Amino acid sequence: MPHLFESKDSFKENFKEAVSDAYGRDFEDTYPEERYIVLGNMIRDFAGEHWRETKNAIKKTESKQLYYFSMEFLMGRLMTSNLMNLNIYDVVKDGLKDLGMDINDMENIESDAGLGNGGLGRLAACFMDSLASLDLAGHGNCIRYRYGLFKQKIENNQQIELPDCWLKNGNVWEVWKPQHAVKVKFGGYVDGYMDGYGKFHAQHHPDFVVRAVPYDEPIVGYHTTTTNTLRLWDAEVDEDSVNSGGLNEYLNQVTAITANVYPDDSTIEGKRLRLTQEYFFVCAGIDQIIRSHLRVYPSLDNLGDKVAIQLNDTHPVLVIPELMRVLLDDYFYDWDDAWNIVTKTVAYTNHTVMAEALEKWPQDMVRSLLPRLYMIIEEINRRFKYDVDHRGLCGIFNNVSILKEGQVHMANLAVVGSHSVNGVAKLHSEILVNDVFKDFVTIYPNKFNNKTNGITHRRWLLFSNPQLTKLLEETIGDEFKTNPEKLEDLMAHVEDEALQTKFMDVKLERKKILAAYVKENLGIDIDVNSIFDCQAKRLHAYKRQLLNIFHVMYLYLRMKQDPSFRIYPRTFFYSAKAAASYDLAKEIIKLINMVANVVNNDPEISKYMKVVFIPNYSVSIAEILLNAADVSEQISTAGKEASGTGNMKYMMNGAITLGTLDGANVEIVERVGYENAEIFGLHVEDINELRHENSYNAWNLYNSSYNIRMVIDSLKNCTWSNDPNEFKLINNDLMMRNDEFFVLADFEAYVYAQEKVQARYMDKSRWAKTMLINIAKSGYFSSDRTISEYAKEIWDLKPLSFEK
Ligand code: 26V
C-alpha cells in the first residue's frame, strides 16, 4: 500500500495540506514550530501502523514481553532517530528542502526529553532502541515528569538551576490514553479478616488516591516492523476522593508526584515524595501488565512465562511486594504460588556500589505510606529469615536482612525477590559478588551474573556522526549498521595511510562543528588543530573532574614558571551537572570556570591551552561533543564507576581512552590492547589495601611532591580567585578529610599519562591507527550485544515473528 512518505512529492503535498489544515492558514504563513508539530504527528501516525502490527503479532504468537521499569529514561530528541529508523529521513529532508526548509531547523525545535540524571537513564533509552531494533517485544515504564532534571546555566562561574520545560511545545511522540487510567492508593490502614476457609484477606482503606494516566510513545526499531511502547504515567486527581487536608492540599499533592525528576543525592525532605513516585509508577505499571495479560490468557499462572520485568536499579523494587499484593489480595493466590510467579518474573540490575546511593527507606515511612506493602515486606523478610536459618546460615542473616535498624534495605529486597541480579561491567559484577552482595552469594550462588553495558551505535555513530559513517561504509561496506561487531573488519585497514588521512579529516570536521557551537554559544575561539581532551558526565567526587582540572592548573603554573616548558596545544572540555544540593561538586564547577577565565585570558598561555566548560550537559550536547574528542577522560577512582557508557561512545568515534582500570574501561583496554589506550593509576586492590590498612595520608603527598603542593597552594593564594577561601570545600575535602577518592594519590601518574598522550599525538599516523583500532573494536559495546545477552540469559525472550 503506498503511504504518504512513499515519495518526496507525496510527502510534500500531504505535509503542506496537513499544516495548513491544522492551523487554518496558508502553509507559507505558518510558523516553524507549527510545522514541526505537524511533521512530528505525521511521523508518529506513520509509526502507528507498525505499532498495531506489533501488538497483533504479540497476541497472535503469544509472545513473551519484557517490561523495563525505570525511574529514568534520558531519551534526548527523537525526530532524527525516528526518521532514520523508519527509513524516511531522505524523503523528508529532500521534501522539506523543496519547501524552502532545512531539516536541521526542524530537528532543533525539539526539546531533549531529559527524564533522568545520567548514565542510568541514558542506558534505559539505548536499551529501548536496541530492543525494537532486534525485534524483541520490550517496553519501558516510567513517569511523565513535567520538568526534566534542570537546565544548567553558568552565572558568575557558578551553576544555577533553571526549570527544564521540555513540554513547553507539547510532546509530538506521545498518545494520551485516559481510558487506561489506574487508581493508585496511599496511606490509611489495612483491615484483615478470615474467610470461611480460614484464609486471610486484607482490605486497604487508603487516605489518598490518585489516578495514574498513561501517555504512550512508540519506540521504532531500525528498519524493522517492531514498534514497542514507552509508557509514561501522569498523575491526575481522582474525582471521587479528596484527602483529609482539603481540596487544595489534595491538588498540590497530586501535582507534586509528577513534577520533577529526583536528583540522585538530594535532601531528606524530598524523600517521602520520592517513595510516592516510586510506588506510583510501579503500581500503575503492574496493573497494566496484569490487565493486558488477562485479556489474552485465562489466569496469571503463566505470568512468568509471558512476562519479564527488569528493575533498573532498586528504584522500582516495590514491583516485588506490589505483584505479591495483587496475586494474594486480588487473585487469591497462596503465598508460595504467588512467590514463585514473582521471582520467576522479576530480575534486578545494580548500577552502583556507592553506599550512599544504595536505597534505604525508614520503616515508619513505608508503613504509613504503603501499609499493605509493608505487611508483605515483613512477611517476605520473615520467610527469608526462616529459610536462611534452616540452611544453617543464621550467622549471616543480619547482613542480608531486608529490615534492620529501622530501615527497609531495597537492594536486599531486590536480591531476595528476583531470579537474577546483574552488574553492568565485569569488574563491577565481581565487586558485587566479592563484596557488596557477598553473603547473598552463599545463599543464592546461581543468581548473580554480569551484563556489560552498551550504547546504541545507531544514535551514537550512524546518526550523530554521518561523516564517519560514510567513511566506514566506503571502507568496509554497510554491514556494520545492522551488525556492529562487523566494525572489526576495519582492522584490515588500520595501517592504510590514505584511510588514516581521510579519518583525520573526518575528525577535523567534527572538531570544527564543535568549535562553531562553542564560538556561537560561549564566544570562545578554539584551535581545531589542538588536542581535544574531553570529560563529560555527572559531576561527582568519585569521577574526579578535580584530578583533570588539577592537571590543567599544573600545566598553567609550570608554563608560567618556566618559559622553556611548553605543551602541544590542547583544549580541555568539561560538561557536567551537579546535584543542586551537592556543594562540593558545585565548587568544582566553579573552580573549572575560574581556571578557564585565567587560562583563556592569558595572552601567552592561551596559545597552548584553552579550557571550555559547556553548560547544560544533555543528550544533544553529547551528540556534538563526544565525536569531536581526541582524548576520552575516564578517570574515576578504581572500583567506583560501575561501568560508564560515555567511554563507549567516545571509543566508537575514535577517541583514545585515558583512564583508570575501572568499570567498562577494563573491557575497553582488554579489546584495544594497552598500546591503544592510556591507562594509569591505582588499581582496586591497591585502593582496598590503602583503605584496609588505613595507610593513606594526603599530607605525605603534599609534603613530598612539589607539583602537588604547587596546585593545592594555588587554591588559596589568589591565583584563580581573589578570595583565598573560595575553594575551601575542595581544600578541606582533600587535606582535612584525607582525600576520600585518592585524587592526590593518582596525580603524578595522571600527569605522566598525559605526557604520554601528547607524545603519541606527535606521531600522526600512529595516532590515527590507534583511533581506527578503537572504532574497529567498539562493536562489542553496542547495546544490541548487551540486549541480546539479557534476552537470552535472563528474559528468555525471542524475536517477534510477523508472518501473516
Ligand atoms: C541513585 C539514587 C539514590 C536515591 C535517589 C535517586 C537516585 C537516582 C540515581 C542514583 C544513581 C544510580 C546509579 C547510577 O546512575 N549508576 C550509573 O549507571 C550507569 C549505567 O549502568 C553506569 O554506566 C555508571 O557507571 C553508574 O554510575
Structural topology:
Elements: H1 8-23, H2 32-60, E1 65-69, E2 73-76, H3 79-85, H4 89-98, H5 103-109, E3 113-115, H6 119-133, E4 138-143, E5 151-155, E6 158-162, E7 175-176, E8 182-186, E9 189-194, E10 200-205, E11 208-220, E12 227-237, H7 247-257, H8 271-296, H9 303-306, E13 307-312, H10 319-330, H11 335-345, E14 346-349, E15 360-362, H12 363-369, H13 371-390, H14 397-400, E16 403-404, E17 407-409, H15 410-416, E18 421-423, H16 426-436, H17 438-443, E19 448-450, H18 457-463, H19 466-476, H20 497-522, E20 531-536, H21 545-561, E21 570-575, H22 583-600, E22 609-613, H23 619-625, E23 631-634, H24 646-652, E24 656-659, H25 665-672, E25 678-679, H26 684-693, H27 698-704, H28 706-714, H29 728-736, H30 743-762, H31 764-776, H32 783-795
Parallel strand pairs: 1-4, 1-13, 4-12, 13-14, 14-18, 18-19, 20-21, 20-23, 21-22, 23-24, 24-25
Antiparallel strand pairs: 2-3, 5-6, 7-11, 8-11, 9-10, 11-12, 15-17, 16-17
Ligand 26V is lined by residues 117-120, 123, 262, 264, 313, 351-352, 357, 359, 424, 453, 641-645, 663.
